Amino acid sequence: MKQLLVLGGGGHARVVLDAARSSGRIVAGVFDDRPGRTGQTIDGFAIVGDYAGFLGKLHTGIEAFVAVGANDVRLRLASEAPAQWATLVHASAYVAPSAVLGVGTVVMAGAVVQPGAVVGDHVVVNTCSSVDHDCVVADGVHIAPGARLCGGVHVGDGALVGAGSVVLPNIRVGAWAVVGAGAMVRDDIPPAETWVGMPAKRRQVST
Ligand SMILES: CC(C)(COP(=O)(O)OP(=O)(O)OC[C@H]1O[C@@H](n2cnc3c(N)ncnc32)[C@H](O)[C@@H]1OP(=O)(O)O)[C@@H](O)C(=O)NCCC(=O)NCCS
Question: How far is Cα 121 from Cα 130, in angstroms, rounded to an integer?
Answer without folding.
Answer: 17
